[in-house]
Each structure stands twice: as structure tokens, then as C-alpha cells.
Amino acid sequence: MLFISLAWRNVWRNRRRSLLTVMAIGLGLAFNVFLRGITDGWHDEMVDNSVRAEVGHVQIHRAQYHDEPSVSKTLPDAGRVERVIRELPGVVGCSFRVIGSGLASTADNSSGVEVMGIDPAQEQSVTTIQHAIVKGAYLSQNGQRPILLGESLATRLKSSLGDKVVLMVQAADGSMGAQLFRLTGIFRSGAPELDGGVAYILRSDAQTLFSLGDRVTEAVLLLSSSRQVPQVVEALHHNLTGDDIEILPWWEVEPFIKQFIQIDDAFFYVIALIFFVVISIGILNTLTMSIFERTREFGVMMALGTRPVQIVRLVVNEAIALGLVGAVVGDTLGSAATLFFAKHGINLGAVKAGVAATGITSSVVYTQLTAANLIYSTIAVFIVVLAVALYPAVRASHLKPVEAIRYV
Amino acid sequence: MALVELINVSRTYHDHVDVPALKQVTLSLEKGAFAAVTGPSGSGKSTLLNVLGGIDRPDEGKIQVAGVDLTDTPANQLADFRLRRIGFVFQAFNLLPVLSVEENLEFVAALQAMPKLSRQQRARELLEAVGMAELRGKRPNDLSGGQQQRVAVLRAIMTEPAIVLADEPTANLDSANASLLLDMMERMNQEKGITFLFSTHDPQVMERARRLIRLKDGAVVADEIVRVSGLAST
């Protein structure tokens, strides 16, 4: 207690210098918290966009489907899979799909497409495709074999609402399947691979087209939070053990996003490191000056019987005091800024093209404040503070009392 | 057995040239002494007190203080020795500026892990005994030089060390304050039996000391009992 009280008072002996140091720590930490908040918000939005566009949080297929997709690799015992999914906590939506490839043709043109057979109601619970309709309407069971095309695909096929579109596919049994559809909706998701290459049809039509009976090729799950993915994947593995299936989290389905996040995180850590180096120089300067000015005092303290290790403790306590006040300032400012932009968002319209390349369709990014962000940033500050304090602390503890007392 | 014993102690400072500060000094000091080391500047007075107090190490010789052999004692044990056996009074007072008068007195007691209430009570008793109770909450910078030095003496005796080493304690004080300080230390010596060893040029201190050890060029040239029990010897 003695050295804590003494350290606190020593810190405030030179109020101006200490305040400058505290502000350096505080602003550095605040920037770090805010930058992490932007990064987290950005990453979450990327993941969310990808998940809600098509991928879902978790996908279930027959084993080996992801490596070599084929419409003939249908999901074994989809009924059992559905029952297991319905009992899992955290699952907010599930869509059973038929996915295959084929050729879409109109009177004017044709193009290779990914045919996605969906149950409109189920798909609504997982993806946002129904909100991406820019012309016409979302799929419905109206008996006229409706088809949705992405905007750029529709343009390529030179088709308009109401036009006929023929899908030709190789069915699961190896035969050729062909059906006539009517273009009832055009969507614009913002994701080029969807808008330019996917055709949505009713699942029942797809099952007929691909000669699948009532079988499906994949189940896609939406969870209440992406943080639940590992637990849900583990629970699925536990409950569906022994079945010839694969259970994939989103980052295995879309490894690009995961890799992008990892690279982006690496950049963040480099920037954070630069800030912490700047902070550490400020703290080192303050402590070194403070110790230099108090050389005589340390000599007296040692003459009175203070042990070298107690001198180290005193200097480290002073650094911790600076770090503590800096952390309060930094966490407060950082949290306030992050929470503000979590509500109002940051408009990145000026760099929209670059933003779209990362898979984010909105030009507004909402920051995200997490406990982990605050805790890790604050711990990093204290690690820096302690590391930087050690040198001046050890130097002070090695002073020779008789020389230090004479120091002017 | 003597409280302090030095046998053939030498100390040389190695700067650009070797400067011998103590040369083969041998002396002893009894418990309850009120003694002064005198001599011209550079004669080795402060060095003698420093090696006795364990804040400097001799190059050769043997030093024993209050039963502790200081020869080759590790730094931590030396710190412990200073904490429990030695009280220092410096020429420049050297109170800790961020602590109040009372906290300055408590500092050494706190290092000794004396309970808060006990050390507070002891500090207040000491301050009261010298009529400084009302200054206990003041910071050193709010005190006069004389007051600061009296607080420094109280700090030195706070934990009842075996010996108080006072290096030129009156050098920064006027004559009246120096006299007050010496009165206080003499009273403590006589009433509580605390051993005092001064290094000084000050005639006032020399007049009060019962034993005078004269150094010249690092060697003891005279060592005499000049008074007995507060009375000048005849």
C-alpha cells in the first residue's frame, strides 16, 4: 500500500508531463479500440453479407460434396437432418436446396448458370434474396414454373419479365433434363457471382428437372449469431455422427472471406503495434525523466533501507498508475466513438468500389464494440506499460545510494 | 562489546586519479555514545559515516555494527541492515517531498512492516515531544530548514535504530536552529540512550559531543573523550 500511494503521488508531481503521457496512452488506446471496432464491424458485415446472400452460417451436404459438387450427391436422410436441426439452439432458419449446373437459354442468348432450387419460405428464413428483387416478384407457388435471374444474367440473356427461359441440365441419373420457365423476377444482390450466374427456381421444379424425387443436395442454416458457429457445428457432428455427410462452417465454404479477414487483422495488428511503440516511447520518456530528476530521492530511500526490488516496484507502480488513468481515458473515448458510429455508421461512399470488392454491398459500415476488443486492447496497454517500465525501474534499483544522495 | 568496530578500514575513490578517503582506520564506538568525527574537508568524515551506515563499501578492512559484519554483505541484506540498525540524518534534510511530515516519519516504520496504527501513534508521540504536532500534515516544502532537519532526526530515530549517523546535520541551519536541533538530539541520547555519530565542522556540534574523533587525509589523528555524561571533561 505504501508504494502504491507513493507511486500515485509521484506520478502527479509533474502534472503536465503526466497528463501528456496519459493523453498519449489514452488517445492511442482509443484509436486502437475504435480501429478494432471498425475492423470488427467491417468483418461482421462481410460475413453477414456473404451468409445472408447465399452461404448461410453452416452448410450440410453429402460427404465430399464441397470438393466435387454434383447434383447426384444428395443429402442422405434429409428428414433426420431436419429433425436434428430443429432441436438445435441458436438456429433461426434453415433452407433445404437443390443445386446443380445447367444452361439457361432465351430466344436471344444462352449462358451457363448455377440452378438453385429453393423453398421460397425456407429460403426467406436464411437469405435476403427476396429483398434483392428489383423487378417483378419473389418466387411463389403459382403453377407457372417461375424463375428468378440476377440482373446481369438477365441482361446477358436479353430477357425481360414474362419472357421464357429454358433450363437444360444433366440430371442426377445422367439423363438430360430440360424445362421451360417464365421469368418472374430479377434481383440485384450486389454480389457479382450471384447476379451474373445464379437462377433461382422452386425446389420442387428443380427436383423434377434433376430427376431427384424428393431429395435435396444441401441444407443451409442461419444462426442467431456468427459466434455460435463452432458450437452448432460441434453439436451437428455429435448428433449426425456416422452419417455420410459433411458439415461446413461458412469459412470453409467461403475461405476467401476468412483469408481476407486474417490479412486485414494482420494489418490491424501492425498499425496497433506502431501505436503501441509510440505510446511506449512516451511512457519511457516520462519515467526516465522522472527517475533522472529523483536520483537523489532514490538514494535517500535506499539509505533508509528500501530494497532494490522495492524501488523496482515503486517505478512499476508509477507506470501502472499512468497506464490505469490512460486506460480509463482511452477506453472511455474509444468506446464512445465506437458506440456513436455503431449507431450512425461510417459512410464509405467515397470508396464504394473498393468496399464492394470486399463483398460489402452497403456503403455504410457500422462499428462494433465488443468486450474482447476493450479487454485485449487494455491488456496490450498494460503489457506495453510494464515492459517499458522495467528498464528505468531496474536502472533506478541499481543506483548506488552513496552516489545517488550526492547527485545534484 | 563495542557497538561499532572498524579494523583497518580503507576506502579509495577511483576517478581520474586514485583518491584515498580512508586509510587503515581502526576505531570502536560504545553504545550510547554522542560522538563527532571532525576534520578538514576531504579528510574522510562522510566516507567514514557512509561505510559505517552500509551505503558505501570499504576496499579493505572489517566493519561490524550492532553485531552485523558488513564485509561482503549482499545488497539486500545491507538494505535490511540499514532499515533496522541505522538512522540517517543528511545535511540537506532529504525528506520525501510527496509525503507529509507524519508520513515521512512513518516511512521507515512502514518498510519494517510496523502496523499502521502503531507507527502513526509513534510518529505523533515523537512530533508532540518536540512541539511539532501541529505540523504533522504539512509537506516538507512548507517547513523551514530547521523544522525539516528536526523531522529528519525524528525519522532517523523513529524505529529506534542502533545508531544515528548524522552527516553535517547543522551545516544548512542558522545558529539558533542548530542549537535547537542539538538540544533535541542530546536529549534523545541522554533519555533514550540512542547512539549518535556526527560528521561535522560546526563548533557547536563539537562543543556538545562527548567524544571527538579527528581525521586528516583519511586517517585518525586524534580520538579523545572531551566530556562525560553531558559535562565537559577537565
Helix content of chain B: 25-40%
> Quick one: how many beta strands of chain A?
12
Oligomer: heterodimer
Given the structure, what is the number of helices of chain B? 7
User: Nearest-angstrom radius of gyration of chain B?
Assistant: 17 Å
For the biggest β-sheet of chain A, the strand order reads: 2-3-8-5-7-6
Unreliable residue stretches of chain B: none
Low-pLDDT runs of chain A: none
What is the mean pLDDT of chain B? Answer: 90
Structural class of chain A: alpha+beta
In DSSP terms (H or I, runs of 4 or more residues), the helix count of chain A works out at: 15
Q: Biggest interface in this structure?
A: A-B, 23 and 25 residues
Descriptive terms for the model:
heterodimer, A: 408 residues, alpha+beta, 2 domains, six-stranded mixed β-barrel, two-stranded antiparallel sheet, 15 helices, B: 234 residues, alpha/beta, Rossmann fold, four-stranded antiparallel beta sheet, 7 helices, globular
Structure write-up:
The complex is a heterodimer of chains A (408) and B (234). The radius of gyration of chain A is 31 Å and the shape is elongated. In chain A, helix 1 (2-11) packs across helix 12, helix 10 (255-293) packs parallel to helix 14 and helix 12 packs antiparallel against helix 14 (371-397). Helices cover 54% and strands 19% of the residues of chain A. Chain A is built from 15 helices and twelve strands. Chain A is α+β, with helices and mostly antiparallel strands and 408 residues long. In chain A, a hairpin with a 5-residue loop joins strand 6 and strand 7 (176-187). Chain B has 234 residues and is of the alpha/beta class. Chain B contains seven helices and twelve strands. Chain B has helices at 45-53, 75-85, 101-111, 116-129, 145-157, 175-192, 203-208; strands spanning 4-14, 18-29, 34-38, 60-65, 68-69, 86-89, 163-167, 195-200, 211-216, 219-225, 227-228, 231-232. In chain B, helix 3 crosses helix 4 and helix 5 runs parallel beside helix 6. Classes of the chains: A alpha+beta (408), B alpha/beta (234). Chain A binds chain B through residues 2, 6, 9-10, 13, 296-297, 299-310, 400-402, 405, and chain B through 50, 53, 55-56, 75-76, 79-80, 82-84, 86, 88, 90, 94, 96-99, 107-108, 110-112, 155.
